[in-house]
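Quick one - first record:
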Amino acid sequence: MGFALGAKQEMSDLRAGSKALGPEHVSATASSFGQRLRFDVSAGGIHLQQYECVPGTWSHDALAFCRIALQETGSPRIERVIDDSKERQIRRAGTISISPSNTYQRWTWDCEMRVILLFISQAVLDEVAFESGMGTKSFEHLTPLVVDDNLIKHTALGLLTECVVSSKASSLLIGTAGRHVAAHILTRYAQIEREDKFKGLAEWRLKRSLDFIEQNMGRDIGLEELARNSDMTPHYFCRAFRKSVGMPPYRYLVSRRIERSKELLTSTSMDVIEIALELGFSSHAHFSNTFRSLVGCAPTIYRSRSRTLSSVVQT
């Protein structure tokens, strides 16, 4: 099945008739269908939700968002109705469904399950399409009911895990991950050949971005804020930053936080939790887990080793 991606007329008609609905509408009506919302986070046109579902039916009016469902547990027989089109298939754990924006949808399934829903706004998809060289015209967007897609699966699971562990979701991480999936959908499911012509950040933009991160690493920096600081769109900025620095903005931010934490561990007597909160980590556990994954040991062990090494050098 395929639907037009970036269809301007449909969006215009939707806005003229009523206010465009978003994922908030889905979560607000979940309980009336017997479903339980377990997790909900959003930033910059990207929403991530997790639900526990009992056998039943769920429907919603047209959303201004592409809807991606990842089957976490259960292997239900799924029936999906999009406008006047109906499909049935078994969706086993680990597979996904992709549904288009601006369409009425009704879902029916026959067993208990847990599912992750990733919503990407049509505005973000249009922006990513334009910055990827597809222009502003509409393209056919494939919307499989069941498909194996490891990139989307691992991105959604990783994003959920990071957000749950940190307890304070990073706007930069959510925005970057969402646009990564949007670009993947355009590449794999729109099946449009495109020429990648863009380059990395101009030197002055790169310096401005790195300085901005250094000055604000202790707070939650969003991808849109970073892009706006360089007078660029979020998708183009993210790709150009990665080409210039060799890693996405969020990974660079985390690496700088860890480097700064190493300085504070060795040169101050600040408690580990103080360092964690000062550098934008949501908790001691979040900081310790991130530090261990990048450095290879816990912050307290790093501090102890550094002080022992310093004492040896001084003697």
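second record:
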Amino acid sequence: MNDVSPALMMQKELLPGEKLLSSFGANVLLPLHPDAGRTGAPPYVLGASAPRKVLGMLHLTNYRLKFKPANPVEPAFSIMLPAISAIRNASFLFVRKFRLVMQDGTHIDFLKWGIPAVIAAINAVATQTRQLDWAAIERDIAAAPETMGAWSIQLSDVQPTTSVASAG
């Protein structure tokens, strides 16, 4: 697969003010939701076991990561950069994997060689997202939700979880 072709196709999917910065060939590990396909059920559960591997391109913009599968039957999805709390190299033996951990502790894994460069690129862009007008970006998303793909993870979707201990 040519790295330029998917990036060119994505130009019409960019939000106002959004810029495509990099594209990486990657596999995503998507664990299916037990009720996928039913009304109101999400297609995937982040952090669940028994994932399904989907080949595609991971696009980094100044707002988000967007995964576009090589097979058009598979759904594309977006993860807004502020929703990510950490990026970890989760490689083990010969499996090269990195994990995006969301603000609420859920995670999604990607298979990719050259992980340090990918993590550095995402971190470099993510530090600059704090200065963006997210209220305006959310209005742009509401006006063109199809640009996000079949599903998305936005900052409002993943508020940090807090636990409260009980003494009794």
